[in-house]
Amino acid sequence: MTTMETFHLLQPYRIAEETFVIPWALEAPPVGHFPMNSMVIRGSEPVLVDTGAPAVRSQWLEAAWSVVDPLDVRWIFLTHDDRDHAGNLLAVLAECPNATLLTTWFSIGRMAEEWETPINRCRFMIDGDTVDVGDRTLVAKRPPLYDNPTTRALFDPKTDVLWAVDTFATNVPAPIPEIADLSADEFREGQFFGGRLVSPWVALLDGRKFGAVVDDFQRLDAEVIAGCHSPVLRGPRIAEAYDLLRRLPEIPAWPEFTQADLDQWMAVAEGSVPPEQPRPSAT
Ligand SMILES: [Fe+2]
Ligand SMILES: [Fe+2]
Q1: What is the mean pLDDT of residues 167-190?
Q2: Which residues have CB under 8 Å from 33's CB, separation 6+?
Q3: What SUPFAM superfamilies does the entry give (predicted)?
Q4: How far is the CA of 1 from the centre of ligand 2 (A)?
Q5: Per-residue pLDDT for 280 more than 80?
Q6: Taking a C-beta distance cutoff of 8 angstroms, is the pair 72, 97 a contact?
Q7: Is pLDDT above 90 for 276?
Q8: DSSP letter string over 136-182?
């Protein structure tokens, strides 16, 4: 298993048989960092699961092609069209000419604000649909929490790996490979914070109805849960995470940072705030 010592951002690590997470993270002061991961399933027909963020495009592509030859990629499963998931989609489509994009009508429409997605390379894969990728049949399923209406998670019954997308999002003190590296308090508080941050509407929900949705998702019975904004969950932390998720409708909404917070951060920065600019690594 990947340890803290062998873990580096944008260096893919194996989380299950022929399944790799491409880890990245953003600093998120004052709450630490947020993971920004993607995944690769290197089966007989390799699958990219999301395409990373544009801020690290060249590094992300290099990381992905260290796991799989782009000419071998047969499928790109796009969970939704947010920039942290679809940010390198055009570059990936260009470098993977043999790949079919698994997406939705609404995602294509939302991305049309920025680019035309080649619909001749698309296949619609909505909640409940499956796709045969040669040596396994992947299942798309809407996760309990999401911040974009097109979101579908992806379950691989061959490895029992679940890509939970934005569900189980958490801040972390520093980037880590496995959620077991968090203390019990960090784990609980991170799940409560990340869940309410991603889906503030969870406070509006009927807890019993939401609980049934969580139960249904949990019945996938994943052994390994990876996600864009969470280190990998395994073992007892999976059931614990589902229990914390079920509690979200009962707890008060997360109080957002206010202008007073921003004023305080600016005072501390004392003129050292950098000017508006693209991230230097953006290509
Ligand atoms: Fe999202
Ligand atoms: Fe996300």
Answers
A1: 98
A2: 25, 26, 27, 171, 172, 173, 174, 175
A3: Metallo-hydrolase/oxidoreductase (SSF56281)
A4: 25
A5: no
A6: no
A7: no
A8: -EEEEE--S--SSTT--EEEETTTTEEE-TTTT---BSS--SBGGGS
CA end-to-end span of the chain, whole Å? 32
How far, in Å, CA of 8 to CA of 2, rounded? 10
pLDDT per position as a tens digit, 89-131: 999 999 999 999 999 999 999 999 999 999 999 999 999 999 9
- Among all ligands shown, which has an atom nearest to the Cα of 149? 1
Q: Which domains does the chain have, with CATH numbers?
A: 13-252 (3.60.15.10)
Ligand 2 center from residue 85 Cα (angstroms): 6
CA of 47 to the centre of ligand 1 (A): 20
Alpha carbon of 271 to ligand 2 centroid (Å):
31
Tokens of 155: 């379950």
Q: Give the ligand at the shortest distance from the Cα of 163.
A: 2
Token look-up 């508080």 returns 189
List, for residues 249-270, the tens digit of each pLDDT value.
999 999 999 999 999 999 998 8
Neighbours of ion ligand 1 (CB under 5 A): 82, 147-148, 166
- The DSSP output letter for 34 is E
CB neighbourhood size of 160 (10 A): 14
Residue 37 token pair = 């991961």
Distance (Å) from CA 264 to ligand 2 centroid: 28
In degrees rounded to 5, what are phi and psi of residue 35? -60, 150
What pLDDT, on the 0 to 100 scale, is given for residue 278? Answer: 74
Q: Which residues contact 80 (CB under 8 A, 6 or more apart)?
A: 86, 107, 146, 148, 150, 151, 152, 165
Q: What distance in Å separates the CA atoms of residue 136 and residue 93, rounded to the nearest whole number?
A: 23
pLDDT digits (tens, 9 = 90+) for 47-99: 999 999 999 999 999 999 999 999 999 999 999 999 999 999 999 999 999 99
Q: How far apart are CA 199 and CA 80, in angstroms?
A: 15
Cα–Cα distance measured from residue 165 to residue 168, given in angstroms and rounded to the nearest whole number: 8
